[in-house]
User: What shape does this take?
Amino acid sequence: MSKPESFPIEKIYVPEKRRKALKPDVVQELAESILDIGQQDPIVVRREKDRFVLVEGLHRLEACKALGERAITGLLVSAEEARQKPSSQDDDPERQKMERLRKLRLEKEAAEKLAAAAPRPRELQDRSVRSNVTATSKPPRGDRAASTPRTLSDWIKQQERSGGRY
Assistant: This one.
């Protein structure tokens, strides 16, 4: 890697993917820190034609912009070194935390979908009642009079046999 040098902020391009990761509260904290003790860690950029592309240090760059700085301390790396740089982000605790949260969210969503697809206890009860009605709707083979009549005519006959009034 090269020695830290000063880069004009207006010549630094931030890729859209990196811009989406911007956290304003982190920028504010860094800006306050930079005011107190100065920029401690250089950003990392690579050259692309007549500009520089940010590889690492989005929040430091934005903090310096917010403070009205025109230049920022950074390291210039080759395109090859820049491609290898993201692998070092696997060790980043913030990235690991975000990845764990993403996995937890996906697991929660999957569990919610499963719960939504599963029948509710009341539905289970209704199904079992319906299935029991279907299963017991046929009269037993033995005494038909003791069974529940299936039609109005059967009910009248049952009442006549038992001496009841209808």
